Amino acid sequence: MAVQSVGAISDEPVLSAEELAARLRGVGKERYHHQHPFHLMMHEGKLSRGQMQAWALNRYYYQSRIPIKDAIILSRSEDPDFRRAWRKRVVDHDGDSIQEGGIERWIRLAEATGLDRERVMRCDEVLPAVRYAVDAYLDLVKDRTFLEAVASSLTELFSRDLIALRMDRLRQHYPWLSSGLDYFTARLHQAPEDARFALQYVTEHAHTRAEQELAIAALRAKCDILWAQLDAIHFAYVQPGWPPPGAFRMES
Amino acid sequence: MAVQSVGAISDEPVLSAEELAARLRGVGKERYHHQHPFHLMMHEGKLSRGQMQAWALNRYYYQSRIPIKDAIILSRSEDPDFRRAWRKRVVDHDGDSIQEGGIERWIRLAEATGLDRERVMRCDEVLPAVRYAVDAYLDLVKDRTFLEAVASSLTELFSRDLIALRMDRLRQHYPWLSSGLDYFTARLHQAPEDARFALQYVTEHAHTRAEQELAIAALRAKCDILWAQLDAIHFAYVQPGWPPPGAFRMES
């Protein structure tokens, strides 16, 4: 229900691979959450420990849904090559016998903020608005075309720079968090690998201009989903600061 | 994914009809959006015309989904008596050959704020977070048990008082809106009728304590959905005031 009409543009000429990549990168410039005021405050060292806890606890719900999202995409592909490549993402987040996954690493970040592991994993203090946004992501990869589902993952094109900056600033402003940064260390190389594969897939499989526009719209929708999570967190815990009934409350 | 565990409570004794009704009313007291700061400001006359526009435009998305929600519930019932009673809700919102429905009346409210009808109906400036919350409501009535789907409508138990107060305050503080209040006039009697029917259904069909707790949790979830919409509107248009990229912007 969130898809904008792209019918009018279908008669326009097909974009070259370079033009399509430029349009996708333009979406990131305009809408990726690196510009969100909550992240700007985080990177300036202006957030309290309670606010960092609220972020870690809420974002855990997103992290916990990532392998589910990727399993949905896996389940929709009939191409073993694609599935093999995509499977890596599930392993990256869920871990294997050799190394722990991103979800466990995120829990350790949350623990470094001072939160109890079980409390985070219960997810019963997650802001409803964060939950809706994350669930909208699952709906997107379930209900839209396969191309759009893949394209929605392309926020990884933009994440490396944000993560590198964040690691630097977290060490600087929140030294008590330093033991919890393994999640980001791993994502520094995982995300660009994943983004390369997905970008190539989208470039090769968006044959018409209409399909290209759908892919761009899916990336925009994903940016909205990330942005809306930070809106909800900022609103409840920074300013004006009223978490809805039942949500995590910061200690005063 | 938002359902809280009610397993632990299943061994408790079944509530009487009066006890169940009291628990349901308790949910309203604690979580219904009559207490939301955006509504409090509205009723004190503190909102600007632009903020009232943002409210009318965003809430239109909710209004437009109500008959879809009710049609989903209709589609899940195998009882013609139930369906006949519930069908009234679809008619109330969509209208018939004799009278216009609630959606048309809401559009006229939005027009009274100074917005163009087509702009409202396009829904392309709706806040993503409002969209997610409303879509979560559709998911709830699709995916949870039929009893929970019906119970989620019980916010109508609480709406009459809020609407009566609102009509009084809108006339007092926003006289330029007076031509747009037909929606609320109709809901003054529609909502209590609907609530009586739904409350009776829930009381008669929640046979076990576990089912009663699920019904209560569904009403709580619906309150969260209404509250989250106002959170998003307040955050984007009142304080601190940054609508996400692409959303409705107030004229400065």
The run of helices and strands of chain A is HHHHHHHHHHH
Number of helices of chain A: 11
Distance between the termini of chain A: 40 Å
- CATH homologous superfamily grouping of chain A: Heme oxygenase-like
Largest sheet geometry of chain A: none
Level-1 CATH class name of chain A: Mainly Alpha
As residue ranges, the low-confidence spans of chain A are: 1-5
**Class by helix and strand content of chain A?**
mainly alpha
Give the averaged pLDDT of chain A, no decimals.
92
Reported CATH architecture of chain A: Up-down Bundle
Approximate shape of chain A: globular
Radius of gyration of chain A, in angstroms, nearest whole number: 18 Å
Biggest chain pair contact, residues each? A-B, 32 and 33 residues
In percent, how much strand structure appears in the residues of chain A?
Answer: under 5%
Helix content of chain A: 55-70%
Oligomer, anyone? Answer: homodimer
Total domain modules of chain A: 1
Number of strands of chain A: 0
- CATH topology of chain A: the name is Heme Oxygenase, Chain A
Features:
homodimer, 252 residues, mainly alpha, Heme Oxygenase, Chain A, 11 helices, globular
Give the topology, please.
Two copies of one chain form a homodimer.
Chain A: H1 17-31, H2 37-43, H3 49-76, H4 80-94, H5 102-112, H6 117-122, H7 128-143, H8 146-151, H9 156-173, H10 182-205, H11 209-237
Helix pairs in contact in A: 1-11, 3-4, 3-5, 3-7, 3-11, 5-10, 7-11, 9-10
